[in-house]
Amino acid sequence: xxxxxxxxxxxxxxxxxxxxxxxxxxxxxxxxxxxxxxxxxxxxxxxxxxxxxxxxxxxxxxxxxxxxxxxxxxxxxxxxxxxxxxxxxxxxxxxxxxxxxxxxxxxxxxxxxxxxxxxxxxxxxxxxxxxxxxxxxxxxxxxxxxxxxxxxxxxxxxxxxxxxxxxxxxxxxxxxxxxxxxxxxxxxxxxxxxxxxxxxxxxxxxxxxxxxxxxxxxxxxxxxxxxxxxxxxxxxxxxxxxxxxxxxxxxxxxxxxxxxxxxxxxxxxxxxxxxxxxxxxxxxxxxxxxxxxxxxxxxxxxxxxxxxxxxxxxxxxxxxxxxxxxxxxxxxxxxxxxxxxxxxxxxxxxxxxxxxxx
Length: 358
Known about the structure:
This protein has about 350 residues and is α/β, with parallel strands linked by helices. The protein has helices at about 50-55, 55-75, 90-105, 135-145, 160-175, 190-205, 220-230, 245-255, 270-285, 295-315, 355; strands spanning about 1-15, 20-35, 40-45, 120, 125, 150-155, 180-185, 210, 235, 260-265, 285-290, 335-340, 340-345. A hairpin with a 2-residue loop joins strand 2 and strand 3 (about 40-45). Helix 4 (about 135-145) packs across helix 5 and helix 8 (about 245-255) crosses helix 9 (about 270-285). The longest helix has 18 residues, at about 55-75. The two termini are about 15 Å apart. It holds the Pfam family MR_MLE_C.
């Protein structure tokens, strides 16, 4: 077995931003394993992991050390490497590499999804960029997603634009009463009083599915109060980051008791850690859905295959967030296709990843 690393810079088509960050480029590492005629690829994408971003040299050094361990141990069971991994996105990359080596890349899990017979329902995503211009521009952006067949649209919100965003959604509701909107606040509200004011305002629209992370993570008491009193369902996103101990996961869900959790394998402890969240959420009748974290098509391919397995295993057919690969003009050509709000795997389309393997 051979193992090597490849680093690639992905530039976004244009700058995108949420309530607390501007995204211009993304540096992604790939773990590539070869064994006889088989290949395994794992994507390590630290863009949403503040712990990793503070010291990317240390992140890369850990990846190099893991590669040496793989060459020495020659094992493809993830349990042999847990103690050497301190970053969630490296664990996730390693899980992908081992699974795709075992089942031959690009397949991690054989299913009706990878055979092209079934797809996964996904939401569209409107970034804050769309609200920098006049309202008409933002309305056109949302309408464009509706025309493409999306019935659920996720929209980034921010205190600076929020009143305009409310008015925009009021117009959308009037024209498209069937549409559902997910609001992603990324912790933009500083005071709970203001949170409730806007929660009530958006609730009255009658088209809001839920609101993600209204306040900054770490404020468990305030978040518990919001989840308890809000008329709108609340989803936890950043709140779950860097919580890997099962005991702490249980404690967080018991104290805050949200209506939803949003899972991103690259920052929630890979497939293993994310499934732990699912099991604990199910015990408490908390809903969940899965989202990508600005991965390339290789990472989204892995998440989509796993998502299909999870929703079938736990009978949860929520709408997921797996379409961010479109943000990169130079992405890998892959069989992933989005049609009418559903992501499909077309087995007749070949992957084009030759540059990655050189």
